[in-house]
Design brief:
A six-stranded mixed beta barrel has the order 1-3-2-6-5-4. The protein starts with a strand and ends in a 24-residue tail after the last helix. The protein has four helices and 13 strands. It has helices spanning 18-24, 46-56, 116-119, 188-200; strands at residues 5-11, 27-34, 37-45, 62-66, 69-80, 87-95, 101-110, 123-126, 130-135, 144-147, 157-159, 170-171, 181-186. It is an alpha+beta fold.
Length: 224
């Protein structure tokens, strides 16, 4: 894990419709819950919440301070406005430092543009963007790195087994298929042909031929 991500939270007293007033004032309501204590309604200025959500995601522990008390927490849910995409509410799960937790960690390819395959004009595609792992909070990695430098020919591939897991980190699923393909190498022409074939299978339907979801003749609502 890299530098600590810190977040100061204030105890929140407004709930329900009153919480909407907080959002208008640039405050994001939230809740922090965990074993051994009742859920705590919290709040924080929007810029602080937005930064922590962007930096920590759901895979980096957050050092939370609530009413002078410090906790380690993971972001579990972020509710956003469907139109403006602004954060409306955040849920955090407090965990213990010696407790093994699970998190979805992104997979980052290393050595892009350096492989023999790419230099020969082949296409390297990433099939899996993230995977769920388990570890103690301090051992959770920000990313899992996978080198693609050794790729050479079409149909070469890399699997989960090729990802070096940091010490103390395991895949969350004990029955995880380590042969699950993460990266494939394709001939450009073959890839284009496959894409064309997939696109050709779908025929564009006219508006008259598509039944309404809510029944024939149901009105369609347009978001304002």
């Amino acid at each position: 894990m890299g530098d600590k991500v810190n977040l100061a939270l204030d105890v929140r007293h407004q709930q329900g419709k009153k919480a909407a007033r907080l959002r208008k004032e640039g405050i994001v309501p939230g809740v922090i819950y965990g074993q051994g204590f009742d859920p705590i309604m919290v709040q924080s200025p929007y810029p602080a919440i937005e930064r922590v959500v962007r930096v920590a995601g759901r895979h980096t522990p957050v050092q939370v301070t609530v009413d002078g008390k410090k906790k380690i927490a993971m972001i579990k849910d972020v509710d956003r406005d469907p139109v403006k995409a602004r954060i409306r509410h955040v849920s955090l799960h407090a965990v213990k430092a010696n407790e093994v937790v699970t998190a979805e960690v992104p997979i980052r390819l290393v050595g892009e543009g350096e492989s023999v395959a790419e230099k020969a004009g082949l296409v390297v595609l990433q099939a899996i963007e993230q995977v769920e792992v388990k570890a103690k909070p301090a051992d959770l990695p920000e990313v899992l790195e996978l080198s693609i430098v050794g790729l050479e020919a079409a149909e070469d591939k890399l699997t989960l087994a090729d990802i070096p897991l940091p010490k103390g980190v395991e895949y969350a699923d004990v029955e995880q298929d380590l042969e699950l393909v993460v990266v494939n190498v394709y001939e450009p022409a073959a890839l284009q042909a496959a894409n064309d074939a997939a696109g050709g299978d779908a025929e564009e339907a006219s508006a008259e031929s598509v039944p309404a979801d809510n029944g024939e003749g149901a009105p369609v609502e347009v978001a304002e």
